[in-house]
UniProtKB/TrEMBL annotation:
It comes from the Eukaryota. Keywords: Membrane, Transmembrane, Transmembrane helix. This is Methyltransferase FkbM domain-containing protein. The chain crosses the membrane at residues 16-37. SUPFAM superfamilies: S-adenosyl-L-methionine-dependent methyltransferases. InterPro entries: SAM-dependent_MTases_sf. Gene3D superfamilies: Vaccinia Virus protein VP39 (3.40.50.150). It comes from Cyclotella cryptica.
Length: 319
């Protein structure tokens, strides 16, 4: 009996093993498939990012700002004054008409934030004074003392012996006689990242002071950008365009293109290189860039205009 039982057990164990070995490939496949799924599933779905969204939302510099004006390459910051104190600058025709069209005739300064990007250390004192001046007026003004680019790091800029013109040529090119230029290492940021981090999906204020029924889109919060960055535009603008940041965030942009010789070496991945021959080549590149950008259908940016307002170079209106 005992023997028979043992033999029975042995037989059923052997039968079970045969069944298991018949399905072994399926089991192995199933286990490895599951681990495959999990291996790929976790990084792709990134549960952490979505589930904890509320806890991880970092506050943005743009929170509480209904309208935003980005003055990229602010020099001594006259465009913020054109926006906030238009009555003092009757000759700033270009900037005044842009602001009037974009922000309407009944705008209120309390609805705005201005971010002024200017890396020139010679202008720091001026921006401190401007900030105090705007504080007294009860309006928001932030000096961001960095150069803008398509990557983070440092860049050599040149003081080009044009202090008499508020150093308007401070940038990555030596202008005029080489012996007169003085190097300055300045920090740079990727503007596309900064805009996504600090402006895109900013928290809008609960109270709006102005009447924006006359702007397009009607009653909409807007972001307007001025760009005058001494040929870094050939790095920054394609990055803003092809990353989608411009189309997602900026309603209207205007700025100057600099028709200089431009050479960016490719990065380690082989991308990022660009060479433009002075004048003709840079002009063609800029025109084609704007043209191709204009052909994008799904985009909040109405236009990037080649407009510039160089009135009041020295400001001249006391603070
Ligand atoms: C996140 O916050 C919003 C509003 O404060 C709330 O409606 C939503 O339920 C929250 N989501 C999670 C996942 O906590
Ligand atoms: C805003 O202005 C328009 C005319 O420009 C006017 O019809 C409308 O009543 C105003 N809205 C408010 C809330 O004052």
């Amino acid at each position: 009996m005992a023997l028979c039982k043992t033999s029975n057990t042995g037989q059923s164990a052997r039968r079970a093993w045969r069944v298991v070995s018949a399905f072994l490939p399926v089991i192995v496949w199933f286990i490895s498939f599951k681990s495959l799924v999990f291996d790929f599933d976790i990084p792709l779905v990134s549960h952490e990012r979505f589930e904890n969204k509320n806890e991880t939302r970092k506050s943005k510099l743009g929170d509480g700002c209904y309208h935003v004006f980005l003055d990229v390459g602010a020099n001594i910051g006259v465009h913020a004054r054109f926006l906030y104190e238009p009555e003092s600058y009757p000759d700033a025709h270009t900037a005044r008409s842009i602001f009037e069209r974009e922000f309407g005739a009944s705008r209120d300064n309390r609805d705005f934030c201005v971010f002024a990007f200017e890396p020139n250390p010679y202008h720091v004192e001026r921006h401190v004074k401007l900030t105090k001046h705007f504080d007294k007026m009860g309006v928001r003004y932030h000096h961001v003392p960095v150069a803008v680019s398509d990557s983070e790091g440092y860049i050599i800029f040149y003081h080009n012996n044009d202090a008499g013109k508020e150093e308007w040529g401070f940038g990555d090119h030596v202008r005029g006689a080489r012996g007169n230029a003085v190097e300055e290492m300045v920090p740079k940021i990727r503007l596309a990242d900064w805009i996504m981090d600090e402006i895109h999906e900013r928290q809008l204020p609960s109270k709006v002071f102005g009447n924006y029924s006359d702007i397009n889109p009607t009653d909409g919060p807007k972001v307007v950008m001025k760009m005058d960055i001494e040929s870094q535009e050939y790095a920054v603008l394609p990055d803003l365009m092809f990353s989608g940041v411009l189309c997602k965030t900026i309603n209207y942009a205007f700025g100057e293109f600099h028709f200089l010789w431009v050479r960016y070496e490719p990065g380690p991945g082989g991308r990022g290189g660009l060479e433009l021959q002075r004048g003709h080549d840079a002009r063609n590149f800029a025109n084609q860039l704007l043209r191709s950008f204009h052909s994008v259908k799904n985009c909040v940016t109405r236009e990037f205009s080649k407009l510039d307002d160089e009135s009041y170079l020295h400001d001249g209106v006391p603070l």
